[in-house]
């Protein structure tokens, strides 16, 4: 087999792997219009979203971006997500859970439990924020909400 043929085959396999990777990622996405969504403890998912309902990421589970319009988000203990956002609902981050980017809400409270970590920022417009021994690396911002910091 000559050099050009090997290069073309290698590029073809690489391109196929990229396409298969994108398809595999999309297959792990969970999306609903009405109803709640739960990623079971220890499981993995891609993006998880719903319009009217809550999203729960079980203890020790992993997901990418989680979001809802009308509903709460719950990231249970030791779970890991990339980002979290809601328009109308609370966002609870369990003990030792991690959000790799930021958390955003318009109307809703944000309790973060002991040893929870948010690598990005924590932002909301209306709603209380409670940091109970939690770490936020990217800043905390609210328009009309209270911020309470408790020792862990």
Distance N terminus to C terminus?
Answer: 64 Å
Q: Helical region count?
A: 1
How much strand? over 45%
SS-derived structural category? alpha/beta
Gyration radius (Cα, Å) is: 19 Å
Helix and strand pattern: HEEEEEEEEEEEEEEEEE
Instruction: Report the average pLDDT across residues.
Output: 88
Give the % helix: 10-25%
Largest sheet: 10 strands, parallel
| Shape verdict | globular
pLDDT < 50 stretches? 3-25
Number of strands: 17
Short descriptors:
152 residues, alpha/beta, ten-stranded parallel β-sheet, four-stranded parallel β-sheet, 1 helix, 17 strands, globular, disordered N terminus
Model description:
It contains 1 helix and 17 strands. By secondary structure, it is α/β, with parallel strands linked by helices. Helix content is 16%, strand content 46%. Strands 1, 3, 5, 7, 9, 10, 12, 13, 15 and 16 form a 10-stranded parallel sheet that branches. Strands 2-4-6-8 form a 4-stranded parallel sheet, with no helix packed on it. The protein has a 3-stranded parallel sheet with strand order 11-14-17, with no helix packed on it.
